[in-house]
């Protein structure tokens, strides 16, 4: 998941030179949602076989389950994608990455306050060290307010949406497979997202889009949305929200490394030290607590 999302930054950077972010994202969501719905149908058809709980669980939907799927789709897909893409377009890369790097802290704090997870001191130390590593890598380049204020606020809103999406689905993924929860919420959230971006989508001249951008769009949908989202929710199911979220701190490190290989962006000594701090922090969170089973509630 970390590798896919890290590489995805460079891919999107190239594709956005031809396709505006919101129409690009609308197409990604439509494609990824369709793949998820087909996969869910196939998994249901083969339920008699020995399918992993990642792909199928026999529990029936309750009324609460349906309401949870609805609000998670609206917040975790429509809201998150709209705010994140809009924020990236309106702020600097450094600002956006630094704000997104705060996600593990927000998830850990909210999880602890809600009584969902017990966060050990060593985990908090790992979060702090990892966040300091992100600041070493990109924070000194960030400048908040002024021309980037709107984008910064949108990114902060996306962090809130992603936190709610990650923690809010704990009960659902204890009863239903990550494939089903991710696919259904994405399909639900994709409908209003496409509606919000429809005017931009129609106004775009798609005949001028290169083959590279089309391939980038398809791969970004299949890998960054289908595969990576499924891994994310499987992690939340098996490891807990706080421990899974800390891995997102590694995404800027992978993105930086891939940009160095593909785009020729230099890796300075400061960035290297920051990367070491991030990985040290992630290691401490692994040592600091054991995986917790999310309780299954009716």
Residues in β-strands, percent: under 5%
Poorly predicted regions are 290-298
Tell me the distance between the termini. 30 Å
What structural class should be given to the helix and strand makeup? mainly alpha
Largest sheet: none
* Helix count from the secondary structure assignment: 14
SSE ordering: HHHHHHHHHHHHHH
Give an overview of the whole structure.
The chain contains 14 helices and no strands. The radius of gyration is 19 Å and the shape is globular. The protein has one domain (2-43, 55-288). Helix content is 74%, strand content 0%. With 298 residues, it is mostly helical. The chain has helices at 2-15, 21-45, 63-90, 93-100, 103-113, 121-138, 149-168, 170-175, 178-196, 198-203, 211-239, 241-245, 251-262, 269-288.
Keywords:
298 residues, globular, 74% helix, mainly alpha, disordered C terminus, 14 helices
Give a quick precis of the structure.
The chain has 298 residues and is mainly α. The chain has helices spanning 2-15, 21-45, 63-90, 93-100, 103-113, 121-138, 149-168, 170-175, 178-196, 198-203, 211-239, 241-245, 251-262, 269-288. Mean pLDDT is 79; it is low at 290-298.
Task: Please render the helix and strand layout as text.
Elements: H1 2-15, H2 21-45, H3 63-90, H4 93-100, H5 103-113, H6 121-138, H7 149-168, H8 170-175, H9 178-196, H10 198-203, H11 211-239, H12 241-245, H13 251-262, H14 269-288
Helix pairs in contact: 1-11, 1-13, 2-9, 2-11, 3-7, 3-9, 4-7, 5-7, 6-14, 9-11
